[in-house]
Structure formats: C-alpha cells, structure tokens
Amino acid sequence: MHPVIILEESARRYAIAAANAEKKGDLDTAITNLRRAIEALEEIIRNYPDHPLINLYTRLYKQYKSKLSSLEDRMIPVSGGGEEEYRVEFSGDEDRGVPAFVVKEKPSVTFNDIAGLEDAKRAIREAIIYPIKRPELFPLGWPRGILLYGPPGTGKTMLAAAVANEVDAEFLYVDAATIMSKWLGEGEKNVKKLFDYARKKAEEGTPAIIFIDEIDALLGKHTNEIGGEVRVRNQFLKEMDGLLDKDKKLHVYVIGATNKPWALDEAFIRRFQKRIYVPLPDKRARLALLKILTRKIRLAKDVNLEDLAERLEGYSGSDIKDIVTDAYMITVREVFEKGGRGDPRPVSLKDFEEVLKRRKPSVDERLIRLLEEWAKRFAAV
Predict the structure, then answer these.
(1) Mean pLDDT of 89-98
(2) CATH topology of domain 3-88
(3) Banded model confidence at residue 91, pLDDT cuts 50, 70, 90
(4) Average pLDDT, whole number, for the chain?
(5) Which tens digit of pLDDT belongs to each residue from 269-307?
(6) What's the 3-state SS for the chain?
(7) What is the CATH number of domain 283-362?
C-alpha cells in the first residue's frame, strides 16, 4: 500500500477517535488524537508535495488545526486552589430544532456571481429550480441527489449556495471533514435527525438543500472501518432512498461535493442521479471571472483582461481570485509604505506579472486526468 494511503488512513482513524472522545466530553483524549491526525497529514505534506491531492490534504490539515484550536479554547481555566481545573463549555442550536452539528447559513451568492460553468448551472436548474417552481410539469419525479465533482477551487460550494438562494431554500451546510465527530458520536440517530429536520422544513413549504462538502470522507470506501461508520452510511442510504420515493413530492435535496469521486461507495454513486463535472474554467469563464473580480478596483490601461485570461490557463477560479487580490495588494502596500495616505494607484500589468512569477496553478494535471477519466465512466448530466 502506498505510504500516502497509509498516512491518510491513519489521520482518518485518529480523527474518528478524537471525534468519539469529544462526544463523550473527554477533551484531553480528543486533543491528543487530533494532534496525531495532524502529524500524519504533516508527513504527507512534507514528503509528498507533488501528490495530485496535496491541496486536499493541505485543506484537511488546516481544518484539523482549526478544530484543534477550537477544542483547546473550550478548556477554560477555573480559578481555585491546588491543581488547575477545567470546565467545558458546549455550544449548540438544539433549542431551535436545528441539529447542533449543522452550520445553517443563508447564502447571498447567485448564479450571476459565478463565472462560467454553464453546463453545471443548466443541469442544476433542470434538477432543482424548475421542479420547485413548477412541480406539476414533472409527473415522473425529479432528481433528489446531485453530485458535484471536480478539482478544488472551481466553485462547487458556490453552486450549491446559489441554488439555495435562487429558490429561497433552507441551506444546511455539512463539512464532512469536521462534522465526523458529531456524526460518529450517535451515528445513525444524527443522520436521521438531519433528514427529519430537512423534511419538516419541506413539509412547511420551504425547500431544503443538504450540502455535504468532501462527501467522500463521509460516504467513501475505506479500509479498517469501524461499526459506527458502516451504520452511518447505511442510515444515509435509507434516508436517500426515502427521498427518491416518487410518491413523495417533498423538495428535499442532497448535494454532495468531492475532489475524489472514485473514493465514493458505488451504492451512493447510483443514488446521485445527477453527477456533474465542475472543471477548471475555460478562457471565456476566466475572462468573465476577471471582470467580476476587478469591478471594484482600478486597472491601468496596459491591462488587457482577454490577454490575462489567456495566460491563466490551468488556474482554478480560487487561484484567479488570489492572483487579482495579490496584484491589488501590491498597490495597497505602496500606499502604506508612503505613509498610509491617498488612494492606491491603478493595478498594472507589471503587478500581475509579478504575482504570476511566484504563484503557480494549485491543481495538478494528474488530478485533472483522473477526474476526466472518472467523468467518462460515471457522468450523468
């Protein structure tokens, strides 16, 4: 077995152990195990910087570090004599009927804010927006499961958020990388709680969209599985089968996003009737994105956005946003170096060229080839 796979499995097992300890209130054990998970990811990042999934491992590393900081912050010193004691403060949203592990947010992004991805937008409109607005036009039912797969930073999360905003839906965002602790504590009960909440909202007339980021971490195929993971997956299958019942017209949708669709259990692949590839932006999309990103800043006359879009081939939407931000920051830095007064000068072509010298595409070509090969086998748009 490849060392990266071994280290990834080790990180996952330690994260699960940390999750179970946190659920029991044993923060010391949770912190210890989470640190070990972080160390395993550090080994991957340090020794395999060219791995096609290095950006995913880096993001998981940052998420685990953030979770570790959160756990450490929850251990608040209590004044008293003798040895130092600690108390734990928990936060949740159970009083409002929202499962505590679900981050509920009202997205403001719309399809107009997303450059390109016209095929993905069309497929999502046909699968979700049209059935919600005119359900009588769909006597054969409509898709309830949609899988968005593609390289990191291409707008998968924004697409899901835009859908919720377009139809004024309840948007339940579940980050699989950090939510495992809540799911594996009580397992299938929490899965049922999430879907019960979504169905309740739909019965009240509000469409519900459950968005699961990095869904492969939750519903993927793993070695050395524990019973809790299997029960969670089985419950999830049961809940999705309930959504697929054509006799029920509830508007509850599950949108999953992943950079590793090949890691998904095949039983779940079948239940996502729409499987949409979200690729790197083409030139047209890159140009549209540059126009959106530069609306609020001044550009010098030597900046030709079409030429710049041509030069940004291979960069993700997230990369392009960072490039524009860094180029603009050069002009802001100059303001502060001159005393902090006045407005920034227009961003010049030289600024962009300076940024491009030190910022390369974040997505490995090998990952693109793997995704395109999977798309040939399983795409369902």
Answers:
(1) 45
(2) Methane Monooxygenase Hydroxylase; Chain G, domain 1 (1.20.58)
(3) very low
(4) 81
(5) 888 989 999 999 999 999 999 998 999 899 999 999 999
(6) CCHHHHHHHHHHHHHHHHHHHHHCCCHHHHHHHHHHHHHHHHHHHHHCCCCCCHHHHHHHHHHHHHHHHHHHHCEEEECCCCCCEEEECCCCCHHHCCCCCCEECCCCCCHHHCCCCHHHHHHHHHHHHHHHHCHHHCCCCCCCEEEEECCCCCCHHHHHHHHHHHCCCEEEEEEHHHHHHHHHHHCHHHHHHHHHHHHHHHHCCCCEEEEEECCHHHHECCCCCCHHHHHHHHHHHHHHHHHCCCCCCCCEEEEEEECCHHHECHHHHHHCCEEEECCCCCHHHHHHHHHHHCCCCCECCCCCHHHHHHHCCCCCHHHHHHHHHHHHHHHHHHHHHCCCCCCCCCECHHHHHHHHHHCCCCCCHHHHHHHHHHHHHHCEC
(7) 1.10.8.60
